[in-house]
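User: Reviewer 2 asked us to show a designed sequence for the structure in our supplementary figure. I'm pasting the structure tokens here. Could you produce the per-position amino acids so we can include them in the response letter?
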């Protein structure tokens, strides 16, 4: 699952005036064992580069899907409480997880 959050739901808001966070829950493996990762990344406009730049990436590695879902929910709630709303939502993982 992947969600991108911003503070504006107006698609006409210029990128320079926005700040973004991405949350992503995905599965992987380590030494042949399944692991679950929750990625949180921040983005904002860079005048120097003339584009949106992603930074402050954090990946939380968890051994169970349940613990990954709880971490995702905790990070999601923190973003919503800070005024961020979902602007893009996609489901690269099975919907049955939720």
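Assistant: Here is a per-position design you can include in the supplement:
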């Amino acid at each position: 699952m992947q969600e991108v959050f911003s503070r504006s739901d107006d698609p006409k808001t210029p990128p320079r005036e926005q700040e973004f966070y991405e949350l992503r829950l995905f599965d992987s493996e380590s030494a042949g064992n399944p692991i679950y990762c929750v990625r949180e990344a921040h983005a904002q406009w860079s005048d120097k580069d003339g584009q949106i730049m992603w930074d402050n990436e954090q990946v939380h590695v968890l051994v169970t899907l349940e613990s990954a879902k709880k971490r995702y929910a905790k990070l999601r709630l923190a973003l919503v409480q800070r005024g961020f709303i979902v602007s893009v939502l996609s489901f690269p993982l099975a919907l049955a997880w939720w």
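For the response letter, you might also mention the following. Confidence is low (pLDDT under 50) at residues 91-98. The radius of gyration is 15 Å.
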